[in-house]
Write a sequence for this structure.
């Protein structure tokens, strides 16, 4: 067992784990204050549900054997036969711990399910969401991960689909899945009528920073070892993200007249998404080009929900689906080492659109079954009053203590009589 490569994969897995609470903060700051806890929990619960399912059968379905190129088998159900000495070969032919690899891939599944939560913010029952993500990773994520990374049919194409760290399996998968679920669940009460601005932009910025930090593990860690490609991927992750942030802000300034904090954060995430499938196969110029194109096009794409009438609350479709498609397709022409070209672009297109078709149909059916059985959506009263209190019996912010000390303190009781009218106004 190569200790250096195994240690690197374990550190990368820890960075990927941090991305899920980072995503929770990113999304949480973007919603209204009355539903921020629900938004945080929709991401955070994925760490619990998907981790358990991964051990029970997820690893086996994604990475054990192959059944017709579509799915793995159940030979490793419950990680049967895996022990502390179990190894696998990474891309350099070095042996690494199988547990380290499984942990790394587990956390990919966790965040992919969590990504969809932003599209459904403010309006779904938490119990139904838990059922949905458990079923979704089973019938959507595990098969698609097998197609791309587990020896499935997309990896068998000639040339094989390039997806270094998850353009198809993670971002296109989550983005198109989010769109399907949104079409079933419907729009928020007051969509396009009431202001639905982010309640805490510093929280969004903090979440973006954690995502950016964790993404080095997500992307560079996908090499499963330490070599030149690892360094290339890490470097391209940084510069593509920077270029995308600038691209988004420039488009935003031209289109809307301002450089916004939310735009900077969304642009950074768009760059992270777009470089995910491509960063290990392009040079620095290619990474800059992918980043700036993703920033500008994703900024344009988020406005489509108002024109087309679907309520993607936090722009999962505009950022993750569109960014994932951009990165997946552009690497077809920009890949270095004589790989890029028409045949590679064709494979990339097959990968992108096959995942979009499969995931959309299956997710739509799954969401519809939940809607017709246990119900997917919170009641209108709960949505209007705030689903934090209704579904979690908690609120993110409690100002009652501060208000109480002001109104019941000694200042009012000792106010001079001649100032009583002013005091009454202050109390009011």
């Amino acid at each position: 067992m190569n200790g250096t490569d195994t240690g690197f994969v374990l550190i990368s897995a820890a960075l990927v784990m941090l991305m899920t609470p980072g995503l929770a903060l990113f999304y949480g700051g973007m919603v209204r204050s009355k539903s921020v806890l629900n938004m945080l929990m929709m991401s955070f619960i994925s760490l619990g549900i998907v981790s358990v399912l991964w051990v029970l059968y997820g690893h086996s379905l994604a990475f054990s054997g192959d059944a017709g190129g579509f799915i793995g088998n159940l030979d490793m159900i419950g990680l049967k036969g895996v022990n502390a000495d179990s190894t696998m070969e990474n891309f350099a032919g070095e042996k690494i711990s199988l547990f380290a690899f499984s942990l790394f891939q587990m956390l990919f599944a966790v965040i992919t399910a969590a990504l969809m939560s932003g599209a459904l913010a403010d309006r779904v029952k938490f119990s139904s969401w838990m059922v949905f993500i458990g079923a979704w990773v089973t019938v959507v994520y595990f098969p698609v991960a097998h197609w791309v990374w587990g020896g499935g049919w997309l990896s068998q194409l000639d040339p094989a689909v390039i997806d270094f760290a998850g353009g198809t399996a993670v971002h296109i998968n989550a983005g198109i899945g989010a769109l399907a679920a949104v079409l079933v669940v419907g729009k928020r009460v007051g969509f396009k009528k009431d202001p639905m601005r982010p309640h805490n932009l510093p929280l969004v910025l903090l979440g973006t920073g954690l995502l950016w930090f964790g993404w080095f593990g997500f992307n560079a860690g996908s090499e499963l070892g330490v070599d030149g490609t690892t360094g290339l991927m890490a470097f391209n992750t940084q510069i593509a993200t920077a270029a995308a942030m600038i691209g988004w802000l420039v488009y935003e300034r031209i289109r809307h007249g301002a450089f916004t904090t939310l735009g900077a954060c969304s642009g950074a995430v768009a760059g992270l998404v777009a470089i995910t499938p491509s960063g290990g196969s392009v040079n620095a110029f290619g990474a800059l080009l992918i980043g700036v194109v993703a920033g500008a096009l994703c900024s344009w794409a988020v406005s489509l929900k108002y024109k087309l009438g679907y309520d993607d609350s936090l722009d999962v479709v505009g950022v993750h689906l569109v960014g994932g498609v951009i990165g997946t397709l552009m690497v077809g022409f920009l890949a270095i080492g004589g790989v890029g070209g028409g045949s590679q672009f064709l494979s990339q297109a097959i990968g992108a659109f096959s995942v979009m078709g499969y995931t959309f149909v299956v997710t739509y059916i799954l969401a519809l079954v939940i809607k017709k059985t246990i119900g997917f959506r919170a009641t209108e009263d709960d949505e209007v009053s705030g689903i934090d209190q209704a579904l979690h019996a908690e609120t993110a912010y409690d100002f009652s203590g501060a208000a109480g000390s002001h109104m019941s303190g000694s200042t009012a009781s000792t106010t001079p009589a001649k100032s009583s009218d002013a005091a009454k106004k202050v109390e009011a």
